[in-house]
């Protein structure tokens, strides 16, 4: 029996109960990676021997029956340190020296029982909403002619193709939510100080977060990354003879993996919230595909049927925020290229950094707009809603090509045309996530974005679970 395609929660429970071993789980997923990744290009590095050795060591841990991610294969985006592996961030100009220690998020995943099976591809320095680099052109499992999005495109593609049940990513201006929407999976960008940030923190805009095929798995992974198991959601489970709250047992409300069975409270289902439906959450001059707008309206109807008050939010984002967000993107490119050999950088990267340098000379790096939006602008624009629901993307995913070989105008135009609706919430530092909701006439999945004020991660996850229950999605692309 293969465990490929099963959820992380199912896998972990089976390993905890001794129904299957961690090495067997990892072997299954490594086999599928070998079979499928040749056409997808999700992984820069597959840790075959090391992952199997780590799975065998995990199986011998005395605390195996208390681990929330026992034996779960995970993929890590090539932008945080993984002990014993180089971190290239999609570039030939970065160091090939192996990291001596795990990033705290990777350490937390491993401590929870996850096994790192590979390092996923990103665009150079994670600067674009595509996923091409000197290492690969990563492709969308739903349509290999299209991009899986970026910059966490390799992680999203690996999850959507069923090669891993969970993956890590980072989000600087939408880099978790954009590929999640492109690939028909769920992802959440937490607010500030919920999860230890990546080293490349993009002036405080970037956050670490998970990608998964179910909201339960997503919440479990976020809880582990945050070190706060109260963020985990209830899961369905077979009833066992164990006592309530013990590993592998379930009470009347279903099993919740909390903190090794010590009984963290089950978060209440959200009810009676005021939800604003924003069909055009972009500055004037930007357009959003009518099919994507319609999906947001329909998702609002679903939440209204769940007992929430749904209202229209018709105000577009201010023009000055759009300009500031673009300037912040260019400023991040300039910062990321410092100390690197420009001769080894791609044309796109050099062009983005050059634009950042020119804007910096006239004091236009996006910092003033970011401070203004964080201080009062976001709260004022958000209004009296508890949560906003918006399109995640503005158009279907563009072609999977070597965009890194093109210049500033091509890359800026396509990035802003298809993915202009996410960056505002990095500028604000607020939590936001993408949830699959329906299909586009092109045959691609549609994602809707949920946004909440700071501290709203559990609220977003609860609403996403309600959408999932009312409107379930296909968890994986056909293999």
How would you characterize this protein structure?
It holds the Pfam family Amidase. Belongs to the amidase family. This is Amidase. Helices cover 36% and strands 12% of the residues. It is α/β, with parallel strands linked by helices. Helix 4 packs across helix 7, helix 7 packs antiparallel against helix 14 and helix 9 crosses helix 11. The longest helix is centred in the first third of the chain and has 19 residues.
Quick summary:
The protein is an alpha/beta fold and 479 residues long. It has a domain at 8-231: Amidase signature (AS) domain (Amidase signature (AS) enzymes, Alpha-Beta Complex), CATH 3.90.1300. The chain contains 14 helices and 11 strands.
Radius of gyration: 21 Å
Number of helices: 14
In CATH terms, the superfamily of the domain at 8-231 is Amidase signature (AS) domain
Write down the secondary-structure element order.
Answer: HHEHEHEHEHEEHEHEHHHEHHEEH
Distance between the termini: 18 Å
CATH topology of the domain at 8-231: Amidase signature (AS) enzymes
Describe the sheet with the most strands: 11 strands, mixed
Instruction: Please tell me what the overall shape is.
Output: globular
What helical percentage do the residues reach?
A: 25-40%
CATH architecture of the domain at 8-231: Alpha-Beta Complex
Mean pLDDT reading: 93
SS-derived structural category: alpha/beta
Count of beta strands: 11
| Sequence of strands across the biggest β-sheet | 1-3-2-4-6-5-10-11-9-7-8
CATH class of the domain at 8-231: Alpha Beta
Question: Low-confidence segments, ≥5 residues, pLDDT <50?
Answer: 236-266
Q: How much strand content do the residues show?
A: 5-15%
InterPro entries: Amidase, Amidase_dom, AS_sf
Pfam family, one: Amidase
Domain Amidase: 25-461
Region (Disordered): 235-270
């Amino acid at each position: 029996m293969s465990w490929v395609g099963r959820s992380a929660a199912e896998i972990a429970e089976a390993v905890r109960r001794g129904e299957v071993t961690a090495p067997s789980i990892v072997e299954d997923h490594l086999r599928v990676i070998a079979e499928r990744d040749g056409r997808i290009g999700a992984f820069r590095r597959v840790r075959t021997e090391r992952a199997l050795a780590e799975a065998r060591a995990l199986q011998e841990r005395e605390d195996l029956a208390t681990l929330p991610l026992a034996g779960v294969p995970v993929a890590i985006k090539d932008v945080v340190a993984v002990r014993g592996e180089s971190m290239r961030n999609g570039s030939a100009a970065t160091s090939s020296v192996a990291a001596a220690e795990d990033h705290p998020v990777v350490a937390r995943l491993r401590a929870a029982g996850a096994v790192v099976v590979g390092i996923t591809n990103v665009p150079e320095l994670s600067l674009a909403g595509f996923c091409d680099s000197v290492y690969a052109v990563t492709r969308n499992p739903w349509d290999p002619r299209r991009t899986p999005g970026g910059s966490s495109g390799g992680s999203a593609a690996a999850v959507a193709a069923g090669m891993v049940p969970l993956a890590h990513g980072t989000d600087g201006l939408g880099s978790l939510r954009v590929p999640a929407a492109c690939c028909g999976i769920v992802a959440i960008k937490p607010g500030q100080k919920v999860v230890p940030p990546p080293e490349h923190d993009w002036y405080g805009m970037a956050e670490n977060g998970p990608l998964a095929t179910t909201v339960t798995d997503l919440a479990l992974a976020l809880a582990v990354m945050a070190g706060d198991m109260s963020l985990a959601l209830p899961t369905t489970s077979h009833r066992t003879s164990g006592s309530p709250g013990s590993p592998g047992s379930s009470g009347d409300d279903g099993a919740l993996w909390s903190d090794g069975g010590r009984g963290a409270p089950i978060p209440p289902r959200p009810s009676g919230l005021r939800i604003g439906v924003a069909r055009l959450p972009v500055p004037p001059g930007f357009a959003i595909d009518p099919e994507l707008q319609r999906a947001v309206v329909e998702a609002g109807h679903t939440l209204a049927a769940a007992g929430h008050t749904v209202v229209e939010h018709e105000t577009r984002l201010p023009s000055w925020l759009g300009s500031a967000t673009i300037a912040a993107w260019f400023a991040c490119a300039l910062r990321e290229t410092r100390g690197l050999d420009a001769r080894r950088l791609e044309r796109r990267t050099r062009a983005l950094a050059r634009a950042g340098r020119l804007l910096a000379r006239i004091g236009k790096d996006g910092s003033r707009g970011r401070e203004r939006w964080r201080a009062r602008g976001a709260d004022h624009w958000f209004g009296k809603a508890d949560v906003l629901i918006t399109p995640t993307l503005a158009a279907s995913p563009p072609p999977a090509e070597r965009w890194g070989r093109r210049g500033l105008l091509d890359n800026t135009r396509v990035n802003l045309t298809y993915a202009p609706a996410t960056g505002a919430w990095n500028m604000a530092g607020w939590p936001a996530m993408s949830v699959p909701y329906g299909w586009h006439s092109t045959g691609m999945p549609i994602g809707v974005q949920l946004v909440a004020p700071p501290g709203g991660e559990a609220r977003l996850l609860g609403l996403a679970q309600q959408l999932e229950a009312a409107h379930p999605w296909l968890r994986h692309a056909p293999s």
